[in-house]
Structures are given as C-alpha cells and as structure tokens.
Amino acid sequence: MTNESTLMQAADRAAANYIAHVNTRRVFPDAGALSLLDGFDEALPERGVEAGAVIGQLDRLGSPNTVANNGPNYFGFVIGAALPVAAAADRLALAWDQCASSWDGSPVADKLERTAARWLLEILDLPRDSAIGFGTSATACALACLTAARRELLQRKGWDFDAKGLDGAPRVRIVMSQAIHITLKRTARVLGFGVDTIVYAPCDAFNRVDPAQLPPLDGMTILCLQAGEVNTGEFDPFAAIVPQAKAAGAWVHVDGAFGLWARAGSDRARTDGVDLADSWTTDGHKWLNTPYDGAMAICRDGRALADAMQSDAPYVPAVWDAQKNLTLEFSRRPRGIAIWAALKGLGRDGVRQMVDRHCGLARRIADGAKAAGFEVLNRVVLNQVLARAASDAQTRAVMEYVQASGKAWFGPAVWQGRPAFRISVSSWRTEETHADALVTLLEEALRAETIL
Asked: Which of 336, 296, 310 is nearest to 147 (CA)?
C-alpha cells in the first residue's frame, strides 16, 4: 500500500507539472486526447487498486482532457484562473479536512471565514453589518437569499412561514430583469415561483432595466436586478431603481456573480446605489480567481438570512451566524478560506489592479476585433466583449475555428435573435500578449472563413 506522504507527493508532482504547462496547453482537448477517456470505461474493481496507480491513471488520462480555464487563453463563461495562494490554501484546507459548520467543528475555519466576510464587505463597500454565507455557487446562494426574502415579506404580513409554509399564504410576487441570468430563473422555479408568474422588467438597448418601464412594486414583491449582465457586462441603474423599490416596501436582490467585483475597481460609478439593496450574491471563482465552488450569499439583515437557513440541533448548537445557519449546507468544507487567502495575497490594491487590467484588456480586444472587421455589439463597460462577423454563418465558423485551434476558447451567445460570440477576460494569467494573440487568431479565422 502506498504511503500517505508518498501519495500526496505524487499528486503534488502531477499538479505542479500540470501548472507548469498551463500557459501552452491546448485550451480544449483534441480528438487524440478525448480518446483517452475510454480508459475510464471499466468495471468497478472487485478489489481495491493501489492508490499510486489510481492517481497515475487520473493524471495520465485525465490531465490531457481538462479545459485549460486555469490558463491565460480561456475567454469563456467568466471563469478566472485559481490564484496560486488561493489554490495552495485550498490544498492545505483539504488536508485539514474540517467540517466547517460552526466554531465547534473548526475554530480556524470559523475565524478565517469571519475575517474573509469582514474584508469582503470592505472591498465591495456593502453595509458592514451584513451577514455572509459562503456557499457552493451564486445559484445556491441566491436560493438562500430569496428564501430569506420571501420569509421576511410574509412575516411583515403576519404570516408564520416556518409553521404554515405556503399553503394559504399571501402571494409574494417576483419581478426580474428581462435580461436576468438563467440561474435566477431556475432559483425562482425551485422556490415554487412558476415561470409563468414571473414578471419581467423591460430593458433598454444595453440590457439594463429601464426605470421608466419598471412594473408596479409593493411590499409583497421581490425585485431581482443584476450587476454585470452576462452578455454586455452592463449594470442596472441601481440609484434610480432601488430607492423606488424600497419606498414601495419591496425586497431588492442583486445578482452580482462577477459584476459586483467592479466595486473593487477604479471605475465603480456604474455600481452606484447597489449598496442600497437587501441582498447580493457573488462568486469568488469568477473575478476573484479562487478555486471553483466558492460563492457568497450576502444579506443586509443577517438575522433574516439566519432565521431562514437556521439549522441548530441539540447535538450541534451554535451562535446564530454560524455558517451552517447562513447557507444551504450543514456539513460543509470551509470554502471561505481560499477567499481569505486571495484577499490576503492580493490586498485591496491587488484586486483593484486585476479588475482594472481585465477591463482594459477587454477594450483592447474589442478595438482589435473592430479593426479586423468584426462588429462589437456592446459598449465594453466591463470585462465582456460581445461580437459577431458579417453573417451568421461566418460568426459560427469563426467561433468553431478558434475553438478547434486549441489556442484559445470562447463560447456562443445570441444577441437580438442572431448568433454572436462572447469573450470574457477573467484570468489573472491573461496579459496583453494573450489579448493580442487572440485578436490575431480572430483575424486568421476571418480570413480562413472568407476564403471558404
């Protein structure tokens, strides 16, 4: 049997070798690599396989079949590369193997996640007494926030949601941006808001909610806005909308999966008024560049979130704002540790520089794409570039050419009913040389398609 220390060293060597070549690795595996996946199609062993062989197979067959979103040439889905300090902290936390539900489960996790929460409220400039639950994704965190929102609105009407549920309860309406991310629609559906009952707020030409066309709001309304629309990167006009919603008694939730981090950059004016909302969600694994599975549910009224998620039991009592009382997970790993490490390693200035640099690179790519003959469809106010070629067929062909090259990767989009592609600049590894190489690749793809 492989010694535990030897096994960990072998895994570390494989990981180090992977990282050493991440800058030059194909961004998406080719056919030869994909054929290796057949090696995993095997029967469950009757007897356990030696651990070193397990790790060896995982590296040999698995590493060539990863998407290199941990490198500098991945421009899809707003996925940041994992900062070395955050990835290293995550590895150490895995070795600790803590059940980070409360102080009793892990004093160090409790302390670090409380510190990370305080730092997050400072760098995002949100109400300092808000509560933060560290969850798996912005989707799961939104589920917690919207549950707290509905429960609070019903409580204001004298309805005991915990005891009576929804049967016979006063109706809570949900209003969403017409351009809201699909995960918020899913969250609403899971919570029992039928998709046909959702009211959509009309948007302007930039996919921002138009304050002049805002549907009627009242004290039984949850209004969902967004910081960073997925295609254009635009922000809803919070300063114009949120006070109006709050005056009506509505609960305002902001989906800021990646765009909320603009608050940490130099150009934060577009986020003015976002701090007036009641709850927010954002991801660490997007623009903060932490490992995946790290997101935050942020609630102005921490008690409202804790009461909605409360999970104390006689065998595991805890203070009201223990992490198990702020998220969906009871048994949980301390995902806030990687967020603490990223913020500690970068500092306020480092986060600002990264956000500013990515926005600058997006503008650089947009300028290069325009010069090459592409139509850039958005104003490039953040780290998103939305573009298309002269025809729909050409747009699809260019995207397929880039993906097949293995030199870069970005994904499809649909804008005003027609195909487009979206380039997201999110990796701390991406520099001007990579942005320029992408533009060159776009030019090459366009020439190849023109010849065809």
From this structure: 310
The H-or-E segment that residue 55 falls in is helix 51-57
DSSP H helical ranges for 301-381:
302-309, 336-372
Q: Which two tokens stand for residue 129?
A: 């007494």
CA dist list (Å): 233 to 51, 181, 385: 45, 12, 8
Radius of gyration of the chain (CA): 23
Strands of the 384-388 sheet, one edge to the other: 375-376, 384-388, 418-424, 411-415
CATH number of 87-343: 3.40.640.10
Q: Whole-structure pTM over 0.70, yes or no?
A: yes
| 82-111: pLDDT as tens digits | 999 999 999 999 999 999 999 999 999 999
Pairing, β 131-135 against β 173-177: unpaired
For the chain, the structural domain boundaries read 4-68, 87-343, 351-451
CA dist., res. 416 & res. 60, Å (int): 44
Of 256, 248, 259, 308, nearest in space to 279 by CA: 256
Residue 156: both structure tokens together: 């204001």
87-343 and 351-451, same CATH topology = no
Inter-residue contact 380 to 366 (CB < 8 Å)? yes
CA quadruple 259, 119, 97, 89: dihedral sign: positive
CATH 3.40.50.300 is right for the domain spanning 351-451: no
